[in-house]
Amino acid sequence: MTTTTSPLRIALIGTGFMGRMHTHAWRTAPRFFDLPLTPEPTLLVGHRPDATAEAAARWEWPEHTVDWREAVERDDIDVIDICTPGQTHAEIALAALAAGKHVLCEKPLANSVAEAEEMTDAASRAGSVAMCGFSYRRTPALTLARELIAAGRVGEIRHVRAQYLQDWLSDPDAPHTWRLDRDRAGSGALGDIGAHSIDTAQWLTGQDITGVSATLRTFVTSRPRRGEVEGLGGVAADTSDRLPVTVDDAAAFTAHFDGGALGVFEATRLATGRRNANRIEINGDRGAIAFDFERMNELEVYDAAADVAQGFRRVQVTEAQHPYAGAWWPVGHGLGYEHLFTHQAVDFVRAVAGEIPVSPTFADATQVQRVLAAVEQSAAHDSILTTVATAAAPEHPLEGNPS
Amino acid sequence: MTTTTSPLRIALIGTGFMGRMHTHAWRTAPRFFDLPLTPEPTLLVGHRPDATAEAAARWEWPEHTVDWREAVERDDIDVIDICTPGQTHAEIALAALAAGKHVLCEKPLANSVAEAEEMTDAASRAGSVAMCGFSYRRTPALTLARELIAAGRVGEIRHVRAQYLQDWLSDPDAPHTWRLDRDRAGSGALGDIGAHSIDTAQWLTGQDITGVSATLRTFVTSRPRRGEVEGLGGVAADTSDRLPVTVDDAAAFTAHFDGGALGVFEATRLATGRRNANRIEINGDRGAIAFDFERMNELEVYDAAADVAQGFRRVQVTEAQHPYAGAWWPVGHGLGYEHLFTHQAVDFVRAVAGEIPVSPTFADATQVQRVLAAVEQSAAHDSILTTVATAAAPEHPLEGNPS
Amino acid sequence: MTTTTSPLRIALIGTGFMGRMHTHAWRTAPRFFDLPLTPEPTLLVGHRPDATAEAAARWEWPEHTVDWREAVERDDIDVIDICTPGQTHAEIALAALAAGKHVLCEKPLANSVAEAEEMTDAASRAGSVAMCGFSYRRTPALTLARELIAAGRVGEIRHVRAQYLQDWLSDPDAPHTWRLDRDRAGSGALGDIGAHSIDTAQWLTGQDITGVSATLRTFVTSRPRRGEVEGLGGVAADTSDRLPVTVDDAAAFTAHFDGGALGVFEATRLATGRRNANRIEINGDRGAIAFDFERMNELEVYDAAADVAQGFRRVQVTEAQHPYAGAWWPVGHGLGYEHLFTHQAVDFVRAVAGEIPVSPTFADATQVQRVLAAVEQSAAHDSILTTVATAAAPEHPLEGNPS
Amino acid sequence: MTTTTSPLRIALIGTGFMGRMHTHAWRTAPRFFDLPLTPEPTLLVGHRPDATAEAAARWEWPEHTVDWREAVERDDIDVIDICTPGQTHAEIALAALAAGKHVLCEKPLANSVAEAEEMTDAASRAGSVAMCGFSYRRTPALTLARELIAAGRVGEIRHVRAQYLQDWLSDPDAPHTWRLDRDRAGSGALGDIGAHSIDTAQWLTGQDITGVSATLRTFVTSRPRRGEVEGLGGVAADTSDRLPVTVDDAAAFTAHFDGGALGVFEATRLATGRRNANRIEINGDRGAIAFDFERMNELEVYDAAADVAQGFRRVQVTEAQHPYAGAWWPVGHGLGYEHLFTHQAVDFVRAVAGEIPVSPTFADATQVQRVLAAVEQSAAHDSILTTVATAAAPEHPLEGNPS
């Protein structure tokens, strides 16, 4: 009987967008899935007392505080769910693991490889579950893709083609935000959305990226300060008062995988017309899969077997036999973005109960961060670029890498 | 009256696939377009006498020969149309230009930048028309894309995303062909199909590529010798008798354009499931265009202007107001691959008559070749690649570009 | 402050799929929308005591009962939410309205036009809100479509093309269910899914259907009894033990709208390959819209204004400016099926508070039922069909409607 | 050797759009296909001497005349290719068949069922080939569809869903043409484009339509007289000078097939945004196919066999193994509209040589005409329509079919 399972008491740290999403996920999961433990939202931790109280009331958390250490120290808390900005992750997670708590930590795992590795070490020593929130792994279509690849239906992988295209910054007068400030955000499109592509690619293929050749680009180098209009807050008040953009608008890199695949990655927030095209295509010698999050309920699958009628199949990943989908609606009735988080909550609970392995582990997330670091490092050597000869110097047309 | 225009007498060199295509184009063009001169197929030049005679009979060429110099030397020939393998282009084109002939030369213009530059110099000195056969420029949808970009509807260009994906080599036992032998083909996917992407990208944007960072990859390093079965010819007879593949199967590179755009290019013949996906997407601050040759009659167009209903429009480029389309069928009745060559013939004739500028010039084609050379050069420096740190050496996670 | 709004106390009748969906909606709505009243799930009404208790526990309803009259009679209940089978709707709704309750009633409103009209009369006399659950009206893309049509962007409507295609019954050995029994289900594909198309079409166009010409078809006239395997329940145990199918598998009809539009409707559960293709396209003299629920986050919009680049736009209806979407995720992050119910809960609450009109009213739902009745009636006169002459009787090829 | 095959001497009657298309087809066919006979354009027959002479010169017909009887009477003519308006077909075809000529006759076969049946009788008595030009049968994707259906991959057919949607008349001020005059055109959207849907549906399924229930509609009842501006000709000069539209703008009908399938057909020239959407979908118990001529090189194919990854496959019908496609370009390089006519020429020549059966026969075309007649007849009985009850008469809501 569902209602008699033991509780799993959650403390959630963070009252922003992700805090609300996680709250919704913890509450929704047990209504649609049979879980071995019942997640019980217990303590909400915020930053400012008023906002924290308001969030707790609205989201129905019975207790709240502004001191995250209280959550770590209380014996009646089982899980620390970290939804705070990246620079705070390491400290909280390390304390939580040391206190024996299970930890769910939003991506990026940390703001540096060193921190991430320290967290991974701590997780490997701890007896509790430590999971990082690369939520796209819980898209049913991508989970199905992984199963198909693992079953050999794509064969030996040659190509990984991953694009994460957004356009909310394509207007040069879109206002400045903290995401455009390197000190606060750490990275731009690369870390924000490119990180998802990297994790997805490595997870789907079961291959790690071993080398990259990268370019980062900032097309719009300053943006108007966001208007601080009383009671409104949000629109740009004065386009002549501009703040510098200190992160990348776009990242592009080729990548080598340890299993032999060749990767081509692109992440941008200036791809006009593309709202959230988190795409990946993988081609092997036996087949291929293709995905675009703008149509998250579909997976395109190609089978190279001989047949007079071959072509990419548009699979609606909404059947009872598909990952996660059986818990939801009749076939053809799609899921939305938040289901990724509900599925994440489900898998977290099941991992705590020992039913399934943890995925992604802190080690997985650290590998993503190593790739991000290599991309940044590669992009810093722009002299590596091979220049195209010009007609002005026709005498040595084939020479001339000036680096 | 169409039938009273002066003749433009053609000598075509080459009896292979492209020879047939050009023949069809020269004959079809005046039946559907009003031309200032009437192309008159006059002399077909082949390699072997028998095959040449047979082709001439089938394609209805009144005269034929196996000596291309005869075509160049005859006074009653106006145009030399070169459809031979790349290594012969320079010699023929230089002779033809010296003799005052108009020249249409298939791509690649030559097999080296040096040859290409010599041909460009000759063309610039000649009073005749010299055009290179990058036929995709004659796709109505791409011509429309160029007009929209030129009219400012895409705005300042940030992204160029070009993929040319085929899969006819994805089976490791697909038989060897001359295209996989560096000595004969010069290059693999890069030169064969990547060259089209490069030309299209530079032509659409009006920007030249100035630098690249590239990777080339050969996934299948040997392939079975094609069976020489009497009367059949074509299927692989013995998969244990394998020949080495000495060109790239796939190419990937990032590129910088002189106008500030960032390019990501990929060309492969192992993208399982993609038959001929010659794709390009361009994003600017005012809009975007996207194209895939697998749906050659469509152009996707995005307008970033404020509206409650914005999104990529699927434009069927078959209206009377669209480039070339008015000469053909009612709206919605599409064109096929060979129309590119008919349009090329039309534009060549009009350029000869001085009605429109030559496009692409030999100089345009030489710029493509320079980019190809830079890609090959960049790919040869694989040490440039930045390695991803490994967990085995966590003490220096951010170091380690070994180059 | 959200948490200080007055409560709106709900009694929900029904513990099946729809009961769970409505529960989820009542709980989710106030977490994402600022509502004038706070819905408060108060009393769950079921049929069997055990199942009702279990559902109440799992879905966190504080009280439960198996007597729906208790809900109607209690003073501390504001809303009766009816999620029971169709034949019970009229009795419950009439009692609830008489008791002054607000009523949300699942579709179909009733199992006969007479009952529906009685309910409509009662609703028009009552001072409370009475709404029918045609939830597709709450699809953001369809709501946007209606706004565009109302704003004149489609112009004078000529065509309505509505298809509701499913395939869960295409296998002739798919097991029998109560939905295939006329006594229990009332109707087959027509009433189950065709009713949605009718409501959507009338609502989008603002036009009522005044006449129909219809065909109903049962392709598979018997189906295996569903296996009652202990502990499993669901798969067909014995395909030789078959029960008759007494409802339609498919319905097709043409329709005249009072505003002059011509409709073509089709509903089927045997359209192999179509999971839940609830499609509608509307063409007017100024533009068109097209929708398919299999891609519920997209609306295709065509503008007939002169432009060199016209075509259907794929609008992702996920922008802050779009109906309902602003309350949810960043642009491009789609919604799923259950959001229709959350939006329905939101609109119900707002209608109770007098902020927006009720939609759909019981009168709207009754008009749907009248169309369904006309379809059944028309289909019963199959002799109306005009026969195609045969070669066997060529002497009178144009005569011969035998009706 | 191709060039040594016997000639097949053609006389083509008609110098309009279709005349040009057929000319192009006769010339192109032998250049790309190995044919048992070589079509030889011999005599062009027109209406006005000047226009005929000009067409003959431009299209390179060696002889021309304005007397079609000359073509029928000459011994050195093998084929009469009829591209004239429908009302002339019967007389010419009967004379040609009587003279022992092979006949290719454009659709519609005739303007009445009686004429069509007379032609069919004549064809059945003649020893020569008589074929009707329903050219869509030669679309490679549709030919493949037929082969898949014949091979059982769709199984028992339940649904036929055919739409032919165009929009060139959606503007109420689009000028009048002869196609809108019943005396000249015979029919509107129904006969012009709906006829194609009917032929395609019957041919694909191998089932004849036996009964229909139809509606015809004229939305725009008058249109401006086309301006006869000197030297331009074509645009509407004066929108106040309007001519009546005496044919249907749109047709909609349900149909019963003799094999049990249920058809839903719609043809319109006012479907704003749809340029030439000649669509058909067929659902059976084992699979489905779907086609849209706007993407004529693609066929969507669904296989209902159990698999975790099922969905419609987008098959690019451009492979060497596909119908007709092997004669053309490499895979993925599409064909256009005129290839239908080239394939028709190929099949006609092969039928003359006895290699393949004639398709479509005059009998097939006559069956189409019988369906068209039944549709017109059904639509004339609009009283058959079942009216939807109104709220004004709630006492008898279920009555009222006036038939």
TrEMBL record, chains A, B, C, D:
Pfam families noted in UniProt: GFO_IDH_MocA (PF01408), GFO_IDH_MocA_C3 (PF22725)
Residue ranges of domain GFO/IDH/MocA-like oxidoreductase in the record: 145-289
Highest taxon listed in the record's lineage: Bacteria
Signal peptide positions (record): none
Domain (Gfo/Idh/MocA-like oxidoreductase N-terminal) ranges: 8-134
Database matches in InterPro entries: Gfo/Idh/MocA-like_OxRdtase_N, Gfo/Idh/MocA_oxidrdct_glycsds, GFO_IDH_MocA-like_dom, NAD(P)-bd_dom_sf
UniProt keyword annotations, A-Z: NAD, Oxidoreductase
The protein's name in its UniProt record: Gfo/Idh/MocA family oxidoreductase
Organism per entry: Microbacterium yannicii
